[in-house]
Write the structure tokens for this entry.
Amino acid sequence: MAFITENTKKEVTDIVYNFFSDECEVDIKDIHADTNIINDIDGDSLMFLELIEIFKKKYNLDIELKTIGKYSVKHPVQTIGQLIEMQLLIIEHENKLLELDQ
């Protein structure tokens, strides 16, 4: 678990924007918090899994994919902003993510 700082927020945002710009071949200037991942830039759910792996390595996270899956069912991600918020929650809470709903 990690405390989320402004630096962490900026770092996560930069990684997410750059990732989708590269993967979807979209100019980074065209990506913003309200960008719909599927409808606006032709992203997919596998990209979300790739990002999770990137962040697991970068922040040495201990979280199971099934935990993220269970959380995602109740809190679906459609936009870049929602994805960034979920990534920050994953970094901060790791396997205790599901406890946020209690």
